[in-house]
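Subject: NADH dehydrogenase [ubiquinone] 1 alpha subcomplex assembly factor 8 structure
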Amino acid sequence: MSVSNAWSRSREKLRLFPELFAQCSPEAATYGKCVSASTTGRQELKKDMCAKEFQALKTCFTNAAKRKAK
C-alpha cells in the first residue's frame, strides 16, 4: 500500500464526516449529554459509562457510511 493511497482514503473519510455527523445528530446529542452529565463537578468519565449511547452513535455512523458508499 502506498502512502499516498492511505492519505487519499483518510482525506476522503474526513471529507464525508460532516455529512455523516449531520445524519446522526440525535445520537451524537444523546452521547454528548451522557458524557456531559457523567463529568459534572469533579467526577471523571470512566470507561463504559456511556457505552450504550456510544454504541448507538457508532452504529449510526456505520450505517450512514454504508448508505453513502452505495
